[in-house]
Design brief:
four-stranded antiparallel sheet, 2 helices
Length: 84
């Protein structure tokens, strides 16, 4: 019988998933990931969870949006968006 302890899976939010991350050119499976939107306007860029995209887009402006994924740890290390 194995006595090794298994780490519990993290609770996942609406934009989060367990997937493969490419770190320094190497693939690492079973990583806590998050889907994000990188929103650009007038040279300013912010990164928000994909479900928060509508909250940062104000009416009447032209925005460039890139949808991507990143590790949740990298997202958590980012500075909080303070607005345009």
């Amino acid at each position: 019988m194995s006595t090794e302890l298994k780490q519990a899976a993290p609770l996942l939010g609406p934009d989060e998933f367990m997937g493969t991350a490419i770190i320094n050119g190497h693939a690492y499976g079973n990583r806590h990931m998050i889907r994000v939107a990188r929103v650009s306007v007038d040279g300013n860029v912010c990164t928000v969870p994909l479900s928060g995209l509508v909250d940062v887009i104000e009416g009447g402006g032209k925005y460039e949006v890139e949808v991507d994924s990143m590790t949740k740890a990298a997202f958590d290390r980012m500075e909080e968006f303070q607005g345009w």
